[in-house]
Amino acid sequence: MATRHNQPFQPYSLPADEAQDARASSATLAEFVHGDEQHVTVRLEDRRTGQQVEAPVAAAALRLLTQALAQMADGHAVTLLPLDAELSTQQAADLMGVSRPYFVKLLEEGRIPFRKVGSQRRVRSEALRRYLTEYQRAATQALAEMTAEAQRLGLYE
């Protein structure tokens, strides 16, 4: 069953002075998330009290954390969204960085599947991800074709 995402998306970003720490943390963690490990034990220390605690962490979750830290170190905000979450048209438009009316137009053209709950449209985040992946693939292919044509015409040196 799809989960309805009622809250506005909470993007997480770092202050500029913490980017280097995130980069170092990502690199360190990346050394421990290779191969077929099922989980990794993480040791945390409270710097104020010196108290230490160990916790097993699923390797997949640690890979996700590693990638999130790398993105944040590069100045990108990140958000975590379940694939089965249902998004409002405004939430989906915000994720895409487009206006809500433009997003609704994409829905009505049949480019992204949706369902109606009363008069409200709902889009699964997985459907949005598939659309964005296909859009990126098509844009990359079009650029390659334009580059090849420019080379063929001698416009590229």
Key features?
alpha+beta, 157 residues, single chain, 2 domains, Arc Repressor Mutant, subunit A, four-stranded mixed sheet, two-stranded antiparallel sheet, extended
Query: Could you tell me how far the N terminus lies from the C terminus, measured between alpha carbons in angstroms?
Result: 54 Å
- Characterize the biggest β-sheet: 4 strands, mixed
* C-alpha-based Rg, rounded: 21 Å
Helix coverage percent of residues? 40-55%
Which band does the percent of strand residues land in? 15-25%
Order of helices and strands: EHEEHEHHEEH
Can you count the beta strands?
6
Number of helices: 5
CATH architecture of the largest domain: Orthogonal Bundle
Label the structural class: alpha+beta
Task: Give the uncertain stretches in residue-range form.
Answer: none
Shape descriptor reads extended
Overall mean pLDDT stands at 87
Describe, in plain words, how this protein is organized in 3D.
The protein has 157 residues and is an alpha+beta fold. It has two domains: 58 residues, no CATH class; 71 residues, Orthogonal Bundle (Arc Repressor Mutant, subunit A). The protein is built from five helices and six strands, in the order βαββαβααββα. The strands form two sheets. Strands 1-4-6-5 form a four-stranded mixed beta sheet. A two-stranded antiparallel ribbon has the order 2-3. Helix 1 runs antiparallel to helix 2 and helix 3 packs across helix 4. It starts with a strand and ends in a 5-residue tail after the last helix. The model has no long low-confidence stretch (mean pLDDT 87).
